[in-house]
Design goal:
This protein is of the alpha+beta class. The chain contains ten helices and 18 strands. The structure holds heme C (2 copies).
Length: 395
């Protein structure tokens, strides 16, 4: 009775074992993938426990991946077809005398299941350790791919998906050199192909940090400017520099003013404006350095009215409002205004407040109160004043 019970338990266990076997193709496992690489199995299991009897001088040589592969005792992805696994896993015939632990056996099973050292987790090529470097101190980073014992690599291809600036050299050799990087983290992917045409992947990180906080760039948008219509264009040239790097880009934008302005060269140091109208504009130039720090400077552009013309003032103001007493032989107060030369005798160019032509019309004492001629309108006074301010030209 007791024996029967034992047999039933044994049968149940065997059924469970078979169920596990049928799930062989599932790669689900609770074993750390790091423990299922050829390199870890070679280091932890084969070298200390097998080479004593299965070294390079023995008939069954387990000393390299190549010799294991050559022995035919490993069928990639098929542990149950691999005597390397079935021998050490065998419950009935423990081998060697001191059997492997269940975890060690499982590691070997998963290594074979995952392709026997040729998958990316069981990588037979090592891209090296991650590297941490200080941007200011190290001009280049070098990675050396190392193949596992017995693995012969035929070709190398290093790549990265990083969008940060960098320059690579030796991408198709075992040694990758990286230069011209900026602060940030780069991941490099090594794809190596062995003599059997099997692709082996490994990845490695380059972490670049800056010793000093990046200093922002310096920029000067230049002097504020004034232009006088009919000139309706203007140019601003920004000067920029970066104390600890380089200026990477310029960006000009309009902050205030009418939306008539046309901006050209807005992504260069030189902003060219056209389509300007009489108003006040402001613009901002933002510069970005090689590490992404930005600085801006603003400038103001005043677009002034065109200078009123003497000819227009004469026909619209002087002739209709002054002629009766100051032209055609009339020169009240000794002041004749028949032409430009006569008119400017009461003008101090650029000084409207010292020019009686402006003072007397501005305070409405000319034309005299009660005369049929109307006082100057605000716009006429402004035009007369601006004409004198601009030098009272004969225009
Ligand atoms: C104390 C000696 C000794 C140790 C240690 C030893 N073996 Fe063996 N092994 C033998 C002998 C002897 C044979 C049978 C003769 C042969 O094939 O070389 C054998 C056979 C094998 C076979 C069968 C080979 C075939 O042709 O199918 C495998 C697989 C194997 N050993 C794996 C291992 C593994 C894996 C280890 C380490 C975990 C190991 N052995 C450790 C002595 C040893
Ligand atoms: C109805 C006649 C009359 C009209 C119109 C008139 N003025 Fe006069 N203006 C005079 C008389 C009279 C004087 C001299 C007395 C005085 O200075 O008030 C004079 C003096 C002046 C003087 C001062 C001259 C001096 O030597 O100091 C100025 C300047 C002047 N006029 C400008 C104008 C202008 C400009 C207009 C037209 C917008 C104008 N006047 C229209 C009668 C006139």
């Amino acid at each position: 009775m007791k024996n029967l019970k034992f047999l039933l338990v044994l049968l149940a266990s065997l059924t469970l074992l078979n169920a596990c076997d049928s799930a062989e193709n599932s790669s689900r496992s609770l074993v750390d993938p790091e423990l299922t690489t050829y390199l870890s199995i070679d280091t932890d299991i084969i070298q200390p426990q097998c080479l004593e009897c299965h070294g390079p001088t023995n008939a069954y040589d387990l000393s390299s991946l190549q010799s294991i592969t050559a022995s035919g005792t490993v069928v990639p992805n098929q542990p149950n077809e691999s005597s390397f696994y079935t021998t050490v896993a065998s419950v009935e015939v423990p081998h060697p005398d001191d059997p492997l632990t269940p975890l060690e056996i499982e590691r070997i099973r998963l290594w074979i299941l995952n392709g026997a050292g040729i998958s990316d987790t069981g990588s037979a090529v090592d891209a090296g350790a991650d590297q941490n470097i200080i941007l200011e101190n190290v001009a280049s980073a070098v990675f050396n791919a190392v193949a596992a014992d017995g693995v012969t690599i035929e070709s190398y291809a290093w790549t990265t998906d990083s969008t940060l600036p960098h320059v690579l050299a030796g991408e198709n050799t075992a040694q990758l050199t990286v230069t011209n990087y900026v602060a940030g983290t780069y991941e490099f992917i090594l794809s190596a192909t062995d003599t059997a045409g099997v692709e082996i992947i490994d990845t490695v990180n380059l972490i670049v940090t800056s010793s000093a906080a990046n200093m922002p760039p310096v920029v000067d948008a230049g002097f504020d400017q004034t232009v006088i219509l009919p000139t309706n264009t203007a140019t601003f040239v920004a000067t920029a520099s970066d104390p600890d790097g380089a200026v990477a880009s310029f960006a000009w934008t309009q902050l205030t003013g009418p939306l008539t302005a046309v901006l050209a060269g807005a992504d260069t140091d030189t902003l060219q404006l056209s389509g300007l109208v009489n108003d006040v504009y402001s613009f901002r130039v933002t510069v970005t350095d090689n590490l992404g720090a930005t600085t801006f400077d603003d400038v103001t552009l005043t677009v002034e009215r065109a200078t009123p013309s003497f000819a227009t003032l004469k026909t619209t103001v002087f002739d209709p409002k002054c002629a009766r007493c100051h032209m055609n032989g009339n020169n009240s107060g000794g002041y004749a205004m028949n032409n430009y030369a006569e008119t400017i005798t009461e003008v101090v160019p650029n000084q409207p407040l010292n020019s009686s032509l402006f003072v007397r019309t501005n305070n409405n004492s000319m034309p005299p109160l009660g005369a049929v001629e109307q006082p100057l309108s605000a716009q006429e006074k402004a035009d007369l004043r601006l004409w004198i301010e601009r030098g009272a030209p004969n225009n």
